[in-house]
Design a protein that fits this description.
heterodimer; A: alpha/beta; D-Maltodextrin-Binding Protein, domain 2; 39% helix; B: mainly alpha
Chain lengths: 352, 363
Amino acid sequence: MFHALKRLPSKIGLSRIVAVGVLALAVGAALPSAARAGATLDAIKARGVIKVGVGTAPGFFTPDSSGRWQGFFVDFGRALAIAVFNDPDKVQFTNSSPQQRLPALQSGEFDILLSGVTQTISRATHLGFHFGPVIFYDGQGLLVAKKLGITKGSQLDGATVCVQTGTTGELNIADFFRQNKISFKPVVIEETSQFRDAFATGRCDVLTQDSSDLAIERIQLPKPDDYVLLPERISKEPLAPAIRYGDDQWLEIVNWVVYATIQAEEYGITSANVDSFLTSDDPGIKRFLGVDPTLGEAAKLDPKFAYTIIKTLGNYGEIFDRNVGPNTKVGFERGYNRLWTQGGLLYSPPFR
Amino acid sequence: MTDFAEPSLPTVEMRARLVRWRQRWWRGLFGSPGTAAITLACIVFLAAVVPPMVRWTVIDAVWFGTPDACHLASGACWAFIGEKFRFILFGFYPAPLQWKPLLVVLLLLTVIAVSAVPRCWHRRLLALWATAIPVAILLMAGAPQIGSIPTGSWAGLPLTLLLTVISLVAALPLALLLALGRQSRRGGVRWMSIIVIEVMRGVPLITVLYAATLLLPLMLPTGLTIDKLLRAQVALVVFVAAYMAEIIRAGLQGVGNGQYEAAKSLGLGYWTTLRLVVLPQALRIVIPSFVNLAIGVLQSTTLVIVIGMFDFLNTARVSANDPDWLGFFHEAFFFTGAVYFLFSFLTSRYSLWLERRLRPTGR
């Protein structure tokens, strides 16, 4: 789903090059006009709604039958609306194509991008974006048939690997096999639908792409249970909320809304049991849930924002499981997206 | 003894007609080795394609039920279209207010139908369009609470129809000016028109859309944003106007020189000549070309997908992204394809009929 962001210009040729040229212009035009600190929040409050740019991918952001946006990233947009307005519906999601989303954020069409942007140094420094905390650790994965009996990538010597043209995936997979000193035969495929068919018909042993994409590819195969996503990730794709450069107040709100969902999971607070924690004697939990209002007041937010977010949407684990977790159709394992206490990478700075 | 009745005259005539008809078909299908080979190839092709198609679309199809029932079946999942019908048609428009986009669709289709009848071609038609389009836009915007529905929520069929219709109607005056400008004797006007027309015709629509959505906002002062839909619509209008201008130019050149000279000798000025003599004839000649352009524009509006807008095609595509109903892309595209085909086919038949009707007699 997110690979389009990383494609090299050769993919669609001219239109892609135009987009890149536009991006280059964006840099020149946008940097001098960096937003005044606090401007975004003022604008949001005046407007009464947060404008969020999203993509389209099953489980991550997709409209349901009634036209309401649902998904993992969408829930973080609702969490922000709770923090700012105490109302999960005061948020307006707008779909944005990969080429368009960064300039659109720059020009003020969105207050925040929750479209699965990979955080990189060049996007932060050249394009001038602030990134909030990583909310989804993605990475290029390897999908193989179970019957091969393979458990890790280094056993794939001599395998045929299907990879899409013009993506960074092509370079990553070559590096991976070189590092492991094993050989592979690449089958380079242009079309997304052919990509899956080639794998289903056995033209290649391995399918490689961002693992979130592979999870979605897997469930669309004729017999999804015959295939397994190997646990390793051969590239780093940390997907984080992106906002315009220079608005520190808005960045802090984004940061602490994300951290609140992670901290809640660490405390063991869920949407079901959050009320029982209101009477907790733990001063940390009291501060966190706003029973002791000092933290929220300092952040200029409703002191109970963390409580309302958890009550309405749940903690990080609940948001993950509901949208993309193992029991959903997407069937994604937590992997790196577990708490640091469970061997993952999610870590919230303390609420004090 | 039985009566030997002579066959009655009509029967004879009918039999003769049948024979002629049969001969004509036989000659058409198997008249020469070449046509026979083509006919046989077509039969083989249809035999290979039609049965699986019927099996998929009808026999093995699931008409009602859950996604699981669909996944088990080998045919099409029309239950998916049933479940997503509202979203495909109206997208993000709030469900309790969906009579508004429905009304917009009906209004636009009615006005199109009225405009298609030659007997209704009258100056009042312009007034009808000039009322219908603002009414449609205001309804979409949530009239009487105008502005209560952001343009980001406009989606599906009403969006596709609005984009198509506004592109064509708003392009007409612009195209007229461009076409006249291109024929102008004033160098500045002529060159400006030529540049606009040739630049627009020289680049793909996708580039124009990108420029309108990506470049334009960066040229505006910070804080000022023009609505994305409006930007895309303006881009479409200018793009369509360039093509339409060339069609109109062909029409202008189709009006005989004698007409201009006659008008001049009557003492008519430039604009009066245009209004009373040239344009009525020129536009009449190019109406069939306009209709063909309309089909092209209807299909081109699907390109707004690249700037993240949810036209009729995109709402269908995204419906198959719902984790519960994941992967029913064939059904989504089949359904939208059928609707686009219906519109285009009707329009194209209409265009053929019109061409026959408008064929100048005795000239």
